[in-house]
Amino acid sequence: MADRMGPVNILIGELKNEDIQLRLNSIRNLSTIAKALGTERTQKELIPFLKESLDDEDEVLLALAEELGKFSEHVGGRDHVHLLLPLLENLARVEETVVRDKAVESLCLLSEQIPPESFEEHFIGLLKRLVSGDWFTSKSSAGGILHIAFARASPTAQVDLRTMYKALCEEETPMVRRSACSNMKKLIPHIDKEIIKKEFIEIFKSFSKDEQDSVRLLAVENGIVIAEKMNEEENQQIVKPVILACASDKSWRVRYMVANTFCELCDTLGKEITQTDLLPVFVKLLKDSEAEVRSAAASKVTGVCKIVQLESAIRTILPCVKTLATDESQHVRAALASDVMGLAPIFGKNHTTEHLLDLFLQLLKDEIPEVRLNIIGKLDQVTPVLGLDQLSQHLLPAIVELAEDRQWRVRLAIIEYVPLLAQQLGVTYFNEKLGALCMTFLGDCVFSIREAATKNLKKLTEVFGDAWFKTHILPKIVELSKHTNYLYRMTTLFSINTLSSTVGPDTVANDLLPIVLDLLNDRIANIRLNVAKTLRMLVAVLDSGIVETKIKPSLNKLLEDKDRDVRYFASIALQSCNQ
Asked: Cα dihedral sign for 399, 404, 406, 409?
């Protein structure tokens, strides 16, 4: 016990140290201290000590608030978890926002462990003290835990809690109203529809008209939660007017929130309201004067088009989309590129060819790499819709061009897309249009491209089979193995490593192994080292006769290499042979 308490005494001493890093270290090891002290001493000594140590730097208080959220087992579990609440209550009152937020998070975690018979006394009592506090800090924190208290409170207590919540909503301090508004969406699911209509609709409307845009923007999410509780007629009268007002709010941040949650709004308000009222709003958001709003709306184009009628989408949304494709803001174009490909399955082959194909090609050639990358990443949504003719005639030339893009990340995205394209093109068409291109990736100047190219060859071999591999890939691997640049010879070994588990054992023994053995005497030590690694991989796929006659003698030769690392990996490979 004395041995164990030695380090613990050091940690306890560090709690009082002037050095903030030592105090932080000790706080993060509170669980260790508590385990060593035992439950009784933790309750009677450690907790009181921590209460007296709350006048500290915010960084230390933040760590303490986090640790207390997972501290219940150290104070005796459910029956004694209330001992931690006063500490967190004090932390929920401090001025620093991140500390208060972490204290609220820990209070929410601990609330689940408080027994029902003592919940109102300890947790709701704490909440009442926070609400009645003199400073905005405690009231702001109260808004974050009120929904937790409400869910477990008795019907009588719930009446009081609703009164408390209303008081928070009417506070003069914007931070308190913001907290109350932010947490309304967590409170609404626990309240009956009639009470919502009687007490909360006016609060909801008041939030949407608040003088602070930081409060108004949060009202949008509350509208979604309230709409889920109402029928379509009630949403027409209650929620729709508020959302329409927010969509034309003078603050771009409020309009951004409408745009960012537009698909959820459409889903909850229903198809009729979406078609007649929300569609014109969406068009306005796509044309908004602020790039941030246009970006948010552009990323929701596919989601909205799924809900509205196709004719309406083509007539009203599509012209805006074509304009956004040449938007002055690269962020808007990037947001559009990340979503617009999803329109192809909705529009179908004919409409995609007529209305979208030129748009896709335009974005594929955008000057900003992020835009091109976003389009490439979603090509798989378009290729099944277009026929082989359209694919080869329009998209393939653009893909081939992008394979030589100066941005290596764009080339990488093309490589990752190739196996999917191969399945759709078939072997003959693939060999004709993209076969040579895949081989050139193996000689790329960027290592990540060469590495991805080897994985790409494995996937292609899985699609087209061993015979295709021998005809189209093997000659390129042989060529690379004789390249004057050692990096390309290294790519040969990486390719063999990757492909050995895909091609048949005969192909490995007759075609791949000889290439590896030819590199056994390479003048570059790094090549010989990777020969040893590759031979170790091949042991798993070759029969014991070949291992004994070809691989072991080669590894024994590498054991005598002048390079220490080569000898090390050769010995590791030999151990694999003997297992």
From this structure: positive
- CB within 8 Å of 162: residues ≥ 6 apart: 150, 191, 195, 199
Taking 3-state DSSP, the helix, strand and coil percentages for the chain, each rounded to the nearest 5, stand at 80, 0, 20
> Is the CB of residue 171 less than 8 Å from the CB of residue 134?
no
Q: Across 52-167, where does the E strand assignment appear? A: none
Q: What is the rounded distance in angstroms from the CA atom of residue 408 to the CA atom of residue 369?
A: 10
**Per-residue pLDDT reduced to its tens digit, 273-287:** 888 899 999 999 999
pTM for the whole structure: 0.74
**Burial environment of residue 544 by CB neighbours within 10 A (0 to 12, 13 to 18, 19 or more):** exposed
* Among candidate residues 216, 304, 222, the one with its CA nearest the CA of residue 253: 216
pLDDT in tens, 138-195: 888 888 888 888 888 888 888 888 888 888 888 888 888 888 888 888 888 888 888 8
Among all chains, which residue has been given the structure tokens 């003088």? 211
Question: What is the Cα gyration radius of the chain?
Answer: 33
Cα 400 to Cα 196: distance, rounded to the nearest angstrom: 58
In angstroms, rounded to a whole number, what is the distance separating the alpha carbons of residues 293 and 283?
A: 12
Evaluate the CA torsion angle 298, 403, 352, 324 in order and state its sign: positive
Q: Who contacts 13 (Cβ-Cβ below 8 Å, separation ≥6)?
A: none
In three-state secondary structure terms, 112 is coil
d(CA 105, CA 247): 32
Taking a C-beta distance cutoff of 8 angstroms, is the pair 442, 491 a contact?
yes
User: Torsion-angle region of residue 434: left (phi > 0), alpha (psi -120 to 50) or beta?
Assistant: alpha
